[in-house]
Amino acid sequence: MTSPAFPFGRIVRFALLSLGALIILAPYIFMISTAGKTQSDIFTSSLTLIPQHFYFAENFAKAFAKVPMTTLLWNGVIVCGLIFFFQVVVAIPCAYAMAKLKFRAARLMMVLVMLGLLVPIHATALPLYVAFDKMSLLNSYTSLVAPFTISVFAIFMFLQFFRAMPDDLLHAARLDGMSELGIIARVIVPNAWPAVTAFAIFSVVAHWNDLYWPLIVVSKQAYATPPLGLMYFRAAEAGDDYGALMAATLIITLPLVAAFLLAQKRFVEGITMTGLKG
Amino acid sequence: MSSVALAGHIPSAAALRQRSENRTAWLLAAPAIVLLLLFVLLPVAAVIFLGFTDFELGYGKFRFVGFENYAHLLNDRTFRRSLWNTSVYTAIVAPVSIVLGLGVAILIEGEGRARGFFRTVYFLPVASLIVAMATVWQYIFHPTIGPLNALLSLAGIPGPNWLGASNTVLYSLSIIGIWQSVGFNMVLFLAGLTAIPRELYAAAHVDGAKSALDRFFLVTWPMLGPTTLFVVTISITNAVKVFETVKMLTDGGPNKASEVLLFTIYQEGFVYLRVGYASAMTVVFLAILVVLMLVQYRVLDRRVHYT
Fold first, then answer.
1. Band (A146; pLDDT cuts 50, 70, 90)
2. Rounded Cα–Cα distance for residues B205 and B219 (Å)
3. Rg of chain B over CA atoms, in angstroms?
4. With bands split at pLDDT 50, 70 and 90, how would you rate the model's confidence at B246?
5. pLDDT tops 50 at residue A2
6. Chain B residue numbers touching A162 (CB-CB < 8 A)
7. Interatomic CA distance for residues B229 and B233, integer angstroms
8. Which of A63, B3, B4, B68 could anchor a disulfide with A247, C-beta 3.0 to 4.6 Å?
């Protein structure tokens, strides 16, 4: 927007952006640096970024020894994977029926979806907790996954996407004698791939990061998701051994950050597509 | 008569097909409807119901107490403190992260080669585990071994006990909140900025909007209207829902100085197991979300005619 013939403005802009970027990156820099420091290093020289004694291996070993990292990461993958699978399997047929079939309840469904968009897990957690407790389902994958199998957000997003799909495609498939389920599996889903990946990123980021619900229904380490596991670790270490703590933090943050760096464009698309629901 | 009978007769085949299509639609939507009832509508109804009872987990019996829970809320110092803290946190995090997000988006939009790099960097916190990054922030904010206070002492400024003192804890949490959401807002604003037709800027230039600031107020700001409205609502909603950092770093302390709405609900409902009372708090929380959404629709309604 500033005219290109004015280098001073460009320098100021670049400087401002760099300063901001440095602030944004600072926690990551300190995380990596501290994960490689010994206790005494941490206590004496917090501003030296390069550790005096490279202590990475020891800190990572400690993190792996004290926290069942593989269990945590595995739980995270299972829970996020199951949630995403059910959300898509439930939402796509529903959105298809609302968008492309003569569905008399489509209006009512739309109202339900809009209402559902308003209600976060924090609002439904109490009765769900009581119900899961009554059914002795606390500390299980079921309790971690079940409340999120329905995503009104997924329905809303796929609905927008399906509406834009040409009807001719469906007519042709019907003339070929395909059933509605066949149409969904072989015509709709392959064409809805951009929407599915965008939603996948949104869903995985949201549930990989969620602390509230796992904190409520899980009290055993065997079912802990990454955020919960990290919380246990911090509590057990009383937050003193920052080297090991930063190593654990690094391991747990890495999967999503790596995925983000590899598929940046998709990530940003996913967040904006799902973010701009208007 | 005959024409009516005829008219009633001919579309019957089409009507039949329509009926079968309607049935298929119901079947396809059935799982979603059942789950929606089970995990959204019924629980919301249950929360409203429980808010009028003295239900406690572990006790079999409960009784109706009418509006007693709500009356109690009005005088509950913890709850009032929690509402106040949530408001302060929101009043800091939402505006600052919106303004910074817009600023960064505009700067990045004009940037050439480094554009992709900056976008990645600013977006990084959105893709990072907030619980994990909160522990990093705890280290940065550490009063004695933290790098922030070490930096301040280099400049001769005695650093505060960021997360440990009741007069700074809410601001420290706000810094983390802003750090986390600037990138998200930036990406939304970037999407809005790229949608503005270039010709408008050229036209504004012809019309005498010579400075960048003039063009911003003449073109960018009005054209960004819908995006801004959306960013404002989502920022406020997200700020009202702050929980992770509080639970991880302060547990509402010290002295309830960082008690926020969701944390108080969590404590009442899942730690003290006073489900009835916590349900009443949840209803208040839901009411706040409803009001926010209604405001958004009202503003959107009025704006639609201009954009």
1. very high
2. 10
3. 26
4. very high
5. no
6. none
7. 6
8. A63
Q: Are A192 and A158 in contact (CB under 8 A)?
A: yes
Q: Is A268 on the interface with B (CB under 8 A)?
A: yes
What pLDDT was estimated at residue B307?
Answer: 42
Cα separation, A56 vs B7, in Å, equals 83
Closest CB to B50: pick one of A126, A231, A268: A126
Distance from the Cα of residue B175 to its chain's centroid: 16
The pLDDT assigned to A5 comes to 54
Look up the pTM and report it: 0.87
Chain B residues close to A147, C-beta within 8 Å: 39
CATH class entry, domain A67-237: mainly alpha
Site of tokens 């944004």 = A24
Token pair for B62:
């409960």
Q: Which residues contact A183 (CB under 8 A, 6 or more apart)?
A: A170, A173, A174
Nearest CB neighbour to B147, from listed A47, A209, A211:
A47
What residues form DSSP beta bridges with B64? B53
How long a stretch of residues is chain A?
278
With an 8 Å Cβ cutoff, is A254 touching chain B? no
Residues whose CB is less than 8 angstroms from the CB of residue B267 and which lie 6 or more positions away in sequence, other chains included: B252
> What is the spatial distance between Cα A214 and Cα A172, in angstroms, rounded to a whole number?
46
Joined together, the tokens standing for residue A76 give 């995270």
The answer to whether B85 and B257 have CB atoms below 8 angstroms apart is yes
Residue ranges in B10-76 assigned as alpha helix (H)? 12-36, 42-50, 68-75
Q: Closest Cα to residue A204, out of A99, A96, A89, A79? A: A79
* Residue B38: DSSP 8-state: I
Token look-up 């007069």 returns B167
Question: Which of the given ranges, A20-34, A154-168, B287-301, has the highest pLDDT on average?
Answer: A20-34
Q: Which of B29, B43, B50 sits opposite A97 (nearest CB)?
A: B29
pLDDT of residue A273: 61
Task: Note the pLDDT of residue B170.
Answer: 93
Question: What domains sit in chain B, N to C, each tagged with a CATH number?
Answer: 2-50 (no CATH), 78-304 (1.10.3720.10)
User: Angle CA(B97)–CA(A154)–CA(A253) in degrees, nearest 5?
Assistant: 50
Question: Which residues does A115 contact at the CB level (< 8 Å), separation at least 6?
Answer: B40, B41
What are the residue boundaries of the structural domains of chain A, listed by start? Answer: 7-64, 67-237
pLDDT tens digit sequence for A60-109: 888 788 778 888 889 999 999 999 999 999 999 999 899 888 888 888 88
